[in-house]
Amino acid sequence: MKKLYAIVVTALFLCTQWAQAQTTLTYYLPKDVSYNKNIPTPQQVLGYEVGEWHVSHDQLVMYMRHMAQASDRITLAEYGRTHENRPLYLLTITSPENHKNINQLKAQHKQLTDPAASAKLDISKMPVVVWMGYSVHGNEPSGSNAALLAVYHLAAAEGPEIDKLLQESIILVDPSINPDGLNRFASWVNTNRGKNLVTDPNSSEFNEVWPRGRTNHYWFDLNRDWLPLQHPESKGRLASFHEWKPNLLTDHHEMGTNSTFFFQPGIPSRNHPLTPETNYKLTREIGNYHAKALDKIGSLYYTEESFDDFYYGKGSTYPDIHGAVGILFEQASSRGHAQESVNGVLTFPFTIRNQFVTTLSTLEAAHSMREKLLAHQRDFYKQALNESKKATNKAYIFGSETDPARAYHLADIIRQHQISIYRPKETIKTGNRTYSPQNAFIVPLEQPQYKLIEAMFEKRTTFQDSLFYDISAWTFPLAFDLEYDALTSKNYKPAQLGELVTNPQLPTGKVTGGQSTYAYAFEWKDYYAPRALNILFNKGIQAKVATNTFAGNGRTFNYGTILIPVAGQPVSSADLYTLLQDVATTNGIEIVAMETGLTTEGIKLGSPMMQNLRKPSIMLLTGNGVNSNDAGEAWHLLDNRFDIQTTLITTDQFNRANLDRYNVLVMADGSYNSISKDKLRTWVHQGGTVIGMGEAIKWLASNGISTITFKENKDNQARTRRPYTELSSETGAQVIGGAIFETTLDLTHPLAYGYTDNQLPIFRSNTLFVEPSKNPYANPVIYTSKPLMAGYISKQNLEQAKNSAAVAVTAIGAGRVIAMPDNPNFRAFWYGTNKLFLNGIFFGNIISSGSARAE
């Protein structure tokens, strides 16, 4: 045994020494290619060989700038800035001759997506456009480090082969899709690396601290943001994507250390039905080039397993709905410089080499299949337009008469996807809905982006497969809780299209009635009403909320209306008026000057039912055990969108923090066993409000800080023997990866203030089903008896979801615990349920103990 141990240790030592010694360019570069010595190598600029250290973003940028100056094959353009103000760069790499005509080539290439012009193009003379995207997940760094090699090779390689490639190709390199995450991860692993490489998986080098480097500044997965477009990285990248309309896009990722290498196609049964079959055939053909390249260097790989091409919001799938081919690469991750794995010591240089080799095989495939790829894009848009003409639906119309801000935000996303969108020329009535020109938008389907429009608006509930790598539904008007309808030839004509919307604007607000000497009121229905109230709180302004309706000034004010008395404020009546004018304008709300407290109907303005509000002082728990995505979505909403100061407190810090300065605690999905339940219970008992989401509500219930109970999963299936190979499929089918469900609201409840329709779509991605309370006043949000609106759910889980509670409130002394099994802030584009979350923050403490849960 000792002898065997000695052999293993010796082998690991030799592998480690090999990893440290084999980081010269000869390890990576093709053996039969010569390189221009006037083009600087990465080592000459950075001071170390590729793979010796993890490149930081500033170093990556430095090298790319050097290359743009040194090579006439490269131009460099900044397409955006991250939340942390890091530049996002796109390199255009092609022949010097092509660079001289780059604008003409770009314009001609975009004509491939215009069926009216594409038939006239001679694709035999057109260059293919390839987009290479690296490391959208910051702690999957082999991609961005391989980008150093890719750019060097394309700039410095010499000979007729590279000249022909560059003449017949335009290569767009995005060396770091997620600079903030990449820098966070590089700093960690470089800091925890010793002079002598340690391969022990227990080493700190391979176990980065929370929230880890996968995500961007607000802990979002940017590889899920291609459709929602909620972050500057995605907005800038997509603008560049549509500027070029590439034919082939690569998306370089990493996976578990004990894996090998994956390239698409993925699992065939999990492809989105809107993607044409030609796409999969091309993907398989391209895969042959990857297999040949990886065979040559002896790297293990696999394909058509594990991953899929269903959700169009991913980098490798978004191109598929644009006549391009998206290719996902997944490399086993060293998560540092060299780590033991079941396949031996996995070195960082080895992971980089695989990413670089498949970069070259992609370029070889694109060049060899150039005319096929160009023809596919041309035919895709021609076919899409023909399908749109034959489709039953001719347009989608959406809007909101009560909250035009949400409609504006959806219109803005649609516009960024290069979809033509219009205002209706006149009021349109369909069924029991009315859409006005000032508050609605029409998206005609007869346009080249037809398939993408369908992907954004469809409500799909039937699927070929029951397993999904990501979400199964993302219907945008449901996410925004907007009224919308599909228009057919019976109720739609192109003549109904009004102004083409090229630059949507957030509606501006106003103060009506002039300066008041008594009070002002604004309703809570507008999306940015919480931001307006928060601004007033920050100025020291006192506010009340109406817990019942009233009428005055010739209009009716609904539940949740905010009242701002003129008397007793820290500013003069004139200054208050000026402040309110600015608040109304910038937040798109209408503030009404009230002449008297003697309302014509309902409660009076001095009624006890006008309850005083307190300024929220929020702590958001972060750190070990907390789902960083969900926590980041809450933080982003509060900080970035609503300008609400939020203190981030780690679970380790909670037990020693002074909680007296806070009145709201947000607990995102996660495990909280390290925090003191007694300290938390005492804080709640004294008047604090807890908003728990996902698995956090199980912890609250099991520790006596909530009285909610959960539905038991009743498996009535016969316990007969089944094939072992079906195990993963059967268990996976019970996962709710992400679907949309219908709930009903009690519009009189503080958590529903601002909603004007008692039907609310909610996004669900877990199997936590809460029993409704026996207290008839304690069920503000309930799943309906037929809840599935879009997406996949098993029959077993559907039964559990029916009539379960979507929100539950527990009274603990003077405090309240608001339990939300679902995430109301999902991926920042679920605008429709943000108000539930914000209402918990602003109104949680005024919820009557009689309406809180009691069994």
UniProtKB/TrEMBL annotation:
Alphabetized CDD domains for the sequence: M14-like
GO MF annotation: an example: zinc ion binding
UniProt KW Hydrolase keyword: yes
Active site: 330
Needed cofactors: Zn(2+)
Database matches in Pfam families: Peptidase_M14
GO CC entries: extracellular space
Homology family: Belongs to the peptidase M14 family.
Full protein name: Zinc carboxypeptidase
Organism per entry: Pontibacter burrus
